[in-house]
Amino acid sequence: MPWCPKCRNEYVEGMKICADCGADLVESLEKRESIPLIFGDEEQMKKLKEFLTYSGFITADLAKDEKEGVYELYVGEAERQKAAAAVRVFLQQEAEMDGKAEVSSPGKDTQGDTEEEKEGDMQEQKEEAGRGLYQDSAKQAADNRSSGYMLMVIGGLGLIAVGLIAAGIIRLPSIMINKYIFCFVMGALFLLFFLMGTAAIKSSKSLEKKAATESVLLSEIRQWCGENISAGKIDEGLLQEEQEGEEIKYFKRTDKMKQMISRQFMNLDEGFLDSFVDDYYQTVFEEEA
Fold it and tell me: At what angle do helices 246-264 and 179-228 cross, to 10 degrees?
């Protein structure tokens, strides 16, 4: 049976998307193989793990490399791409906060922040990371369509049940409130479900049209990248030290790839570009992997 890795709900065979959170279902909730994502000092890696966990990355884990004396952050293969984007946003936010701290008034003690202030900072970083993550329109359309049908079924069945109660075919227990009040309240609720389902299905149709446009754009970008982007062109003049870690190489390479693509295809959605580059990176450097 498939399971949702975030909600941990079990679904019937054939389901592929969680109806509650939209996550891709997995065959098992057993711990999946993790791969190293980034390394650094203990304090920074603990903050980063806390941020990823708060952002919904369930496979984030921390381990110390005794040989090198550093801490490594691991995530599951399925979450690697989105986690890498979230890490990039987190580090950018940290750099901006450090810059602001240098010019702020002396005497301000950030160590004295309340739990509410820390929670607010974490929420702001999570929202910033969410803006960098991209969900293609085709998947959104499928999610909206499945959610819409589910809401319409629940709403329709509920309205039928309310109608049967109002007609006296189904009798409520005598201890319950007046059946007409019950029918009015529950009827309004189920009608709302039905209307929300209808709206979701209509939205899925517009998203399907948008997905068709995105598919054409993706094909054009892939064709251009195949002709103009190679591992040699990306690494040329980019990597200054041969001993740079894979995480540093990854961030430098993806930033350069985005700059190259943005010059050719202007006004691309940032999340769309991040998603494309994260996927295409594997194609360009698959021989290194």
Answer: 90
CA dihedral 274, 276, 277, 282 (to 10 degrees): 140
Q: How many residues appear in the chain?
A: 289
**pTM score:** 0.43
- Which string of DSSP letters, residue by residue, matches 15-28? --B-TTT-PBPBS-
Token pair of 180, please? 């007409």
Helix (H) or strand (E) holding 163: helix 137-166
Of 60, 85, 86, residue with least CA distance to 74: 60
pLDDT tens digit sequence for 78-117: 777 777 777 877 777 676 666 555 444 343 444 445 555 5
Flag residues of the chain having pLDDT under 50: 31-32, 102-112, 126-132, 287-289
The rounded distance, in Å, linking the Cα atoms of 17 and 2 is 9
Q: Which helix (H) or strand (E) holds 246?
A: helix 246-264
Neighbours of 281 (CB within 10 A): 18
Are 23 and 55 contacting, i.e. CB atoms less than 8 angstroms apart? no
Distance in angstroms (rounded) separating the CA atoms of residues 88 and 129: 8
Closest CA to 267 of 194, 216, 217: 217
Burial bucket for residue 95 (CB in 10 Å: 0-12, 13-18, 19+)? exposed
**CB burial of residue 25 (10 Å; 0-12, 13-18, 19+):** middle
